[in-house]
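QUALITY CONTROL LOG
STEP: pairwise intake check
CHECKER ROLE: data steward
CRITERIA: each record must contain a sequence immediately followed by its structure tokens, with no blank fields

ENTRY 1 OF 2
RESULT FIELD BELOW
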Amino acid sequence: MKSAVDILLDLEVKFGVNHFHKGLREDIVSDEFKNFLNSLVFQPARHSIGLPAAPVFVEKHKSAVETHLAIETVQVAPDPALFFGETNANLLLLAKQLSAFRKEIPDMYAFTWMLRRHCRKLKDIFRVKPELALDFQALLDTEGNLYWIDVDGHINLSMKLRKDQIICRAQRALATFKDVMLNLTETKIIQIEYRQACH
């Protein structure tokens, strides 16, 4: 969690990215609270294909004498918002949401202008830090603002891939984001199943 916050704050300073982080502290949680948190978990990509949410706390966490939990204070996410995720499962979810989200955009010209600004930021970020494209996830509001979420998903993935594979995934993530932009502004079809493979 701390590494995710550090990454977000660094991206905010260097590139002006949006995020929801406000504060972070650590606390010890009870088994009852762990179970309560598991009951609240909602994972849209899993839900969209009929799978139950994977629990946050599993048996290895429950057997610990004390579980330390990082508690992040965040801003409320915009509503409506469009979830963007770089993986195929997330893109399938995104494709289902596009039509309804497009109808919520109040000013397509202003939306497009802002979205293009964020696309240029993504291009700059992925050029300097291509590993951040691995499992890239964000929320997009109806004004065209992009909010980075769950930024530490790349950490374990980047250790398993070669540098050229990471760069390929960054290029693919950017191309997919551009496809989404076009879909929102010009009703272009997203070709999820034909995305470039990174071997």
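ENTRY 2 OF 2
RESULT FIELD BELOW
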Amino acid sequence: MLIDIKKYTIIVLIIIGFTIAIPISLFAKDAKPNVIHSDYLSRADYAGIDLPIKINDFNLGIVTDYRRKNPGLGVSVSYLHTEYTTTIYFYDNNSKFIPSRIDLNNPQHITLLLQPDISSSLEIKELVKRGVYSKVKEKGVNGSPKNTGIFTCSGYDIEKNKTDFDSYLCLTMHNNKFIKVRMSMPARKDSTKIVSDFLNEFYKNFK
């Protein structure tokens, strides 16, 4: 019996193509580009940290470069989640006094951290004045994430569009840069644990 090689070759190629397409379609939804390998950004822009594709349930997202506006503003990278918004900022604020490693027992280091903390508090108050937020209330020590390693955190209860949000601001210094993590989510009881888990997983990438 003669076999039509051409016919069966086409059938085999279709089967192989379909087999490859299935896993690609399954994983494409979660795939995110590793934007750390941008043409004009290097590891130094991220305080020498290799940004992972995923941090827990968060996927690496968009990188924004603020340095054209002001060199001291640095860059930011977002990590995307269906419910939460997380942005990590890497910048030096044109300061030459940021240490390579933070010591939370050093009063001078704590004083340095107050600069971006005060600045961020003023930003939040400005958003209230502009009507972006209806209400803002500081959570205080008891409402801040615990076990956050080298990060110091503050939390806010925010009302926006008649919806309550938990918003957190966590700061540290590494390789002569400030690192600020801002995370917001609809108000929930385990929000502080979500922040702590994210920070501890993120810290594993510090070098």
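INTAKE CHECK: passed for both entries
DESCRIPTIVE NOTE, ENTRY 2: The chain has one domain: 34-203.
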